[in-house]
Amino acid sequence: MTESHMPNGSVRFDLEDGVATITLDRPETLNSMNDDLMQDLSSALSEVEQNQDVRVAVITGEGRGFCSGADLKAMSDPNRRKIIAADGTGPGPMGPTRMQNSKPVIAAFEGFGINAGCALALACDLVVAGESSFIQIGEIQQGAPIPMNAAWMRLKLPEFVLSRMALLGDRITGPEMFRLGVATECVADDEVLSRSRKMATRIAGFPPGGAVNIKQ
What does the CA dihedral 147, 90, 95, 21 come to, rounded to 10 degrees? Predict the structure, then answer.
């Protein structure tokens, strides 16, 4: 196994047997997204795309949760919101125009994914959720728009599901994520990462280029 940190030290990158594990590594802030983490995540996804030894990637979070969303303290500049367009583009790596990897990406969804953390999970091709985990699009409680979440959900899920999640702004737990089609599988909390890696290993074992052809 090869293991390294991205330049800003906010994301770890491990590679073993064709499977890259990308770990959001700001547990002290529940893996909230500041500029350093977003830049490191973009760098890690670029490495997945460019490294011929990588066939599939798993994204996970260090500590208690997947990602608690934007670091509101770090993102307090009001001008930052204005550069997020309605199609989900913007400064982060999760919009559809930014996260177009040709290789499969699996979310090992433990704990929670809130707002931008929800968008990151939705950006992945497959989501393995823990039984007690929850996802939340809570911007309605702040009066904020949801460009990245809306963009991904319009691509992947019925509008009824988007409305149910975004207009109520409540927490949706792992079993309900699976029922709504937001999660691919729902497993015991302590099996999320191992199940995600097992799924990734299976994909990596298919003929070279097969998964890329399917995504295209």
Answer: -130
Residue 120: both structure tokens together: 């990151």
| Amino acid present at 33 | M
Q: What DSSP character marks residue 79?
A: G
Burial per residue of 160-197, b for 16 or more beta-carbon CB atoms within 10 angstroms, e otherwise = eebebbbeeeeebbbebbbebebbbbbbeeeebbebbb
User: Kindly report the CA angle at 124 between 136 and 155, in degrees rounded to 5?
Assistant: 80
Neighbours of 214 (CB within 10 A): 11
- Band the pLDDT of 82: cuts 50, 70, 90: very low
pLDDT, tens digit, for every residue of 128-176?
999 999 999 999 998 988 888 888 888 889 999 999 999 999 999 999 9
